[in-house]
Amino acid sequence: MKENKISSAKTNYNFSLFLVIILSLTFGLVGATAAIMIAKPYIVSSPDVLPAVNQADNSSGNLRQANSIIENAKKIIASQENKINDTISASQNTIVGIFKKNPSAATSSDAVAKKNFTIGDYYKLTDAVGEGIVVTSDGWVLASDFARGVPENSVLKNFVVITKSKDVYNIDQVSQTGMGYYLFIHLSRAKDLPVKSFISKTDLADSQSLVALNWQGESYLTSIVDKISATQPVKDSDVSSQDIIFANNLGEYFDNAFIFSLNGQVVGYFDKKNGPIPLYNFQPLIKGLLHGKESKHASLGITYINLQEYAIKDVGYNKGALIYSDGKLPAIKPLSAAALAGLQTGDIVLSADNVNIDADHDLSDILEKYSAGDEINLIFRRSGTENSVKIKLQGIK
After folding, report:
1. At a CB cut-off of 8 Å and minimum separation 6, what does 353 contact?
2. Which of 153, 187, 221 corresponds to the end of one domain?
3. Sign of CA dihedral 397, 156, 148, 240
4. Most CB atoms closer than 10 Å: which of 71, 147, 221, 360?
5. Rounded-to-integer distance, Cα 36 and Cα 38, Å
6. Given pLDDT bands bounded at 50, 70 and 90, which one contains residue 198?
7. Which residues pair with residue 222 across a beta bridge?
8. 168, 187, 206 — which closes off a domain?
9. Which residues neighbour 69 within 8 Å (Cβ) at sequence distance 6 or greater?
10. 150 assigned to some structural domain
């Protein structure tokens, strides 16, 4: 009898212990789940996991997010998503596809009305051989080098351009950019096309979010990884001093895409062969197209040191671009815009058109958005005294 009571007591004890363990695990699981649900809106995964677990569709295609870290900012995340979607919607119509011409294709409403549908007589939208972006409302397009060295008359004869609204245009003019990857083409009888402006390099910042879009309507959220300054201490005002490095993961999803800032300006172009390429240096050339004349990049004609790249105690030498020669190039090139304006070796250029020259705004980067013939106002220091001069920029030769 006593043994039965002991056995029963052990059974009750084991059941109670089992019940306590089950309840503890249940409450722990509920608590953990609740904590995750509360914290989830405020946490965005790290860049390494975002492409795999945070893919989302929107009205314009597949938006894959990467390289974006936002902490404790629910409203900011919502605002960011709105900006991304707005950028995609506003930018898509500026991208065009380039196709090999199909002589039998019906392109006018009268011709279409007279024909029965024959698949070979139309352009399949996935068969684009290149893509471009509209840069003027009257039909100029900056295009990837789809022709690959084909003579200009062959481009005019053998290719057409199709817009997102499925309008088909013949090409009636070709203009070389001087940059091997790109050319300008003009669409015959085009008018009132949607246009995007090109961002200036000085308006770009490290970690800035960007959206890549291609002709197929796919989109990808990437960012600027870094702005790398040229390593040489003495710089040429007529040569870019920085290169922009984008998050180089676009090729995992598609080959060709234009890259936009979240305010809708064109930043660059991506293809697997050449990687991400900044496009801000096309501004002067586009300005020439708008005025119906050839345009060249601007030349000031000096070599200099950016003083903010050095630790200097003397307050007279702690900022600006010191006109200086390392012996390889003259500090001021003969007959250059700077020489004609009277600048001298040892002058320190402090600002250009009210943009201060500093670690984020190098002199050569500021000059990239100007064309030959533009006037620019420089503030410079000479022998401790600040002066101003208006200089008419020349063209790079």
Report:
1. 366, 376, 377
2. 187
3. positive
4. 221
5. 5
6. confident
7. 210
8. 187
9. 44, 46, 47
10. yes
Residue carrying structure tokens 């010191």: 322
pLDDT value of position 41: 38
Mean pLDDT of 168-183: 82
Instruction: Tell me which residue of 259, 285, 281, 286 sits closest to 271, measured CA to CA.
Output: 259
What tens digit of pLDDT does each residue of 283-340 get?
Answer: 777 777 766 666 677 899 999 999 988 887 777 888 999 999 988 889 999 999 999 9
Closest among 34, 80, 22, 23 to 56, alpha carbons compared = 80
Closest by CA position to 261, among listed 182, 215, 207, 314: 207
Q: State the virtual CA torsion across 371, 372, 374, 378 in degrees, nearest 10.
A: 100
pLDDT tens digit sequence for 37-64? 444 433 333 333 333 223 333 434 445 4
Tell me, yes or no, whether 320 lies in a domain. yes
pTM of the model: 0.64
Q: Determine the residue type at 168.
A: V
Number of structural domains in the chain: 2
Burial of residue 126 (number of CB atoms within 10 Å: 0-12, 13-18, 19+): exposed
How far is the C-alpha of 337 from the C-alpha of 352, rounded, in Å?
14
Structure tokens of 65?
């997010």
